[in-house]
Amino acid sequence: MIILRTVNDVRDFVSTAKGRGASVGLVPTMGALHDGHLSLVEQAVKGNDVTIVSLFVNPTQFNNPTDLATYPRQEEDDFKLLAKAGVSAVFAPSVEEMYPGGPDAQPKHEFDLGHAAEVMEGKYRPGHFQGVAQVVSLLFRIVNPDRAYFGEKDFQQIAVIRNMVKSEGIKVDIIACPIKRADDGLALSSRNALLTPEQRAVAPEIHEALKYSVEYSRDHSVRATHDTVVERLNAVPELQVEYFEIVDGRTLEAIDEWEESPYVVGCITVYCGKVRLIDNIAYRLPK
Ligand code: PAF
């Protein structure tokens, strides 16, 4: 596995690979890798001749400086995991390499991300998805991958990236990979490392409540299903629901009746102490 630090080195690496007819898969990450990331890497390695993983904690998608400062970083451990997973190259650039002169010095560009970027995370983290679109489009332009892999834990992010790719006219297949969970059901996330042992012990309640709500939804309304999840989680000390929305899985429009859509997903963000955790569950899947 080769470690690349500059845009030029990545371009050279990719053009050599493509020159010999190799397909290229990209797994964009912010590092602090866990089994969730490794499952994306596994799919990328299986589906492409060459797999590149980017490790970059992107400052432009954080709207809270403390969140950016405390985001876990463990580059050396990440390199070891990726080498073992059969990755061809890691792209681990500096902030200056990605944003010469700093993020504020970049040409202003407003991405057309559609309705999907305005709700839920978009409402509670203003500017977040513009920052995600900025870095992901930059990575796509640098790496020019055939396929890019994203985890469904960040369900809304995938919808937004699909909109970005369409509006920017970027040719890449976006592959959505299923959520990886710990044995007790907690969705794997780099942020889990920030939980105290007491918080870690109650965090699986998020998935428990969502799972229970799927059963509950069979003979209850959308509103009642929503409320049962929020009430159950807010009753747990340390947990505070920021939002829970039951939406159409494609448009992310909130629904009022189950019959409104063949694809219904509940998306939730819960504070566990100061750690912001997200998760989701499908109520209906398209046939
Ligand atoms: O999901 C993430 O880790 C990030 O949002 C991404 C896609 C790597 C962009 O920084």
Q: Would you give an account of this structure?
A:
The structure is a single chain. By secondary structure, the chain is of the alpha/beta class. It has two domains: 2-177, Rossmann fold (3-Layer(aba) Sandwich), CATH 3.40.50.620; 190-284, Pantoate--beta-alanine Ligase, Chain: A,domain 2. The chain is built from eleven helices and nine strands. The strands form two sheets. The protein has a six-stranded parallel β-sheet with strand order 1-4-3-2-5-6, sandwiched between helices. A three-stranded antiparallel β-sheet has the order 7-8-9. It is globular, with a radius of gyration of 19 Å. 37% of the residues are buried. Bound molecules: pantoate (PAF). Pantoate binds at residues 28-30, 58, 61, 132, 135-136, 154, 157.
Any low-confidence stretches, pLDDT <50, length ≥5?
Answer: none
Could you please say which CATH topology of the largest domain applies here?
Rossmann fold
Tell me what the CATH architecture of the largest domain is: 3-Layer(aba) Sandwich
Bound molecules: pantoate
Which strand order do you get reading across the main beta sheet? 1-4-3-2-5-6
Tertiary shape:
globular
- Work out the number of β strands: 9
| pLDDT averaged over residues | 97
In N-to-C order, the SSE pattern is EHEHEHHEHHHEHEHHHEEE
Number of DSSP helical runs: 11
**Category from helices, strands and their pairing:** alpha/beta
Instruction: Give the C-level CATH assignment of the largest domain.
Output: Alpha Beta
